[in-house]
């Protein structure tokens, strides 16, 4: 990807120009200048992961982070139209994945992005929400009967609740596969003691997983 797109996007975000940032992302997709994957991974994700704030007042920085997240969220929702367009040409594998973040985990942008990536790989994927209590996850599995539940976990503090959640899923639905991903698993020791079937760190991992499980 040409760095000029990233620089231009960052300039719009620094100025908190929501309309400009959304229109710019739209232009990149509409003109086939960037793929959905590149827009998400080369522009949107780094704009949040490397978020810095030059203001001394921490409270103001928190609001600036919220505003930036909200701009990125709007771009993700807008991009869904382009996901739909691409889906017309994607071969479906009829494998159902329910995506969520467990209780206390509010970071949801990675989960939304990867739900779109799963769709683009032919899965029937749905994002059902952030901060999802254990009991609601079990109800969702009952309602949607997925082949896999994918949990995105960012904060390592949430490993304990992730363990409780995955234990319950395996206890009540032993045939439902568990996929884990997110920043919390950059440290391999956070996976110890967790019940799961697949850990995916990147789009490449996700694509390889798609090839492996497609019937
Ligand atoms: C935006 C943000 C928030 C927003 C989230 C809003 C929302 N709707 O999502 C809000 C304001 C709510 C928030 C709150 C908090 N946050 Co915060 N937040 C961030 C920030 C700036 C960006 C997160 C983000 O969206 N990144 C972009 C996405 C795309 O990245 P990602 O989630 O990693 O996903 C990528 C991969 O991990 C992967 N992936 C993710 N999930 C999955 C799943 C699968 C299956 C697959 C295949 C791949 C995959 O795909 C994505 C693309 O590559 C980060 C900074 C950072 N370094 O990320 C801090 C950060 C994550 N937050 C942090 C903290 C501490 C908090 C708070 C505790 C702050 C506080 N004191 O209140 C609370 C905790 C809230 C909670 N209970 O969860 C810390 C976590 C530190 C740590 N590792 O312990 C960070 C790293 C900031 C920092 N440097 O200190 N936060």
Q: Which whole number gives the mean pLDDT?
A: 95
- In DSSP terms (H or I, runs of 4 or more residues), the helix count works out at 8
Query: How many independent structural domains?
Result: 2
- Going by CATH, the homologous superfamily of the largest domain would be Cobalamin-binding domain
Q: What does it look like?
A:
The protein is an alpha/beta fold and 215 residues long. The chain is 54% helix and 13% strand. It is built from eight helices and five strands. The chain has a five-stranded parallel sheet, sandwiched between helices. Strand 1 (96-102), helix 5 and strand 2 form a beta-alpha-beta unit. 30% of the residues are buried. It binds cobalamin. Cobalamin binds next to helix 3, helix 4, helix 5, strand 3 and strand 4.
């Amino acid at each position: 990807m040409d760095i000029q797109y990233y620089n231009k996007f960052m300039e719009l975000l620094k100025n908190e120009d929501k309309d400009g940032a959304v229109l710019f992302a739209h232009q990149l997709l509409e003109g086939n200048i960037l793929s959905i994957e590149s827009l998400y991974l080369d522009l949107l994700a780094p704009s949040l992961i490397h978020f810095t704030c030059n203001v001394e007042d921490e409270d103001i920085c928190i609001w600036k982070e919220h505003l930036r997240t909200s701009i990125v969220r709007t771009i993700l929702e807008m991009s869904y139209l382009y996901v739909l367009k691409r889906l017309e040409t994607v071969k479906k594998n009829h494998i159902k994945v329910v995506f969520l973040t467990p209780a206390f985990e509010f970071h949801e942008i990675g989960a939304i992005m990867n739900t779109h990536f799963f769709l683009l790989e032919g899965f029937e994927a749905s994002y059902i929400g952030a901060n999802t209590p254990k009991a609601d996850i079990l109800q969702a599995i009952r309602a949607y009967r997925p082949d896999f539940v994918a949990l995105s976990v960012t904060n390592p503090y949430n490993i304990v609740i992730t363990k409780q959640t995955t234990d319950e899923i395996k206890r009540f639905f032993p045939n439902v596969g568990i996929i884990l991903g997110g920043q919390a698993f950059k440290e391999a020791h956070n996976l110890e003691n967790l019940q799961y079937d697949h850990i995916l760190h990147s789009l490449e991992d996700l694509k390889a997983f798609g090839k492996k499980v497609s019937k």
